[in-house]
Specification:
Elements (H helix, E strand, L loop, with lengths): L3 E7 L5 E8 L5 E6 L2 H6 L2 E3 L6 E5 L5 E4 L7 E5 L7 E6 L2 E7 L11 E6 L6 H11 L4 E5 L3
Length: 147
């Protein structure tokens, strides 16, 4: 089993939390600053790693909203209590893939992030889904906390 470093993250109010075991040999995290209007307005700066796992815990699922736009191939999970978008999911061929917003990381500083701007305008839907299958987190587990 590969060594990992655990990254903890949460929305501002803590309703949506996640743990992200990150491959230890890749501690400079490559992040994408998306240029779409949604990400610009919500401060979405994303990362993913195909060798990682996303474990999400939600305190109150009634406070989580999903938003789809554009190609309608991804669900952005938004905490309606604080307005933060911690992660995005895409269902492809029956499997769930995820990207996470690095602005929600609690224990990783900017010195560990290597940011580049990204623009996916003009990318057809098939190419977009194939890119996600190659690069996004392929193991996603979401649990709502008991009330």
């Amino acid at each position: 089993m590969k060594k990992t470093t655990n990254i903890s993250a949460a929305c501002h109010c803590g309703n949506i939390r996640f743990e992200l075991p990150w491959p230890e040999h890749e501690l400079e995290i490559q992040v994408r600053k998306c240029g779409c209007s949604f990400c610009r307005k919500h401060g979405g700066v994303w990362t993913s790693h195909r060798d990682s796992l996303l474990v999400v815990t939600i305190k109150d699922s009634a406070l989580v909203r999903k938003y789809r736009f554009g190609t309608k191939t991804a669900d952005f999970h938004i905490c309606s209590a604080c307005g933060v978008v911690p992660f995005v999911l895409s269902e492809i061929d029956g499997a769930i893939y995820a990207g996470v917003n690095v602005n929600t990381f609690e224990d990783i500083g900017p010195h560990s992030l290597s940011t580049s701007s990204t623009d996916f305008d003009g990318e057809d839907t098939g190419s977009r889904l194939e890119r996600r299958k190659r690069n996004w987190i392929p193991d996603v587990r979401i649990a709502a906390s008991p009330r």
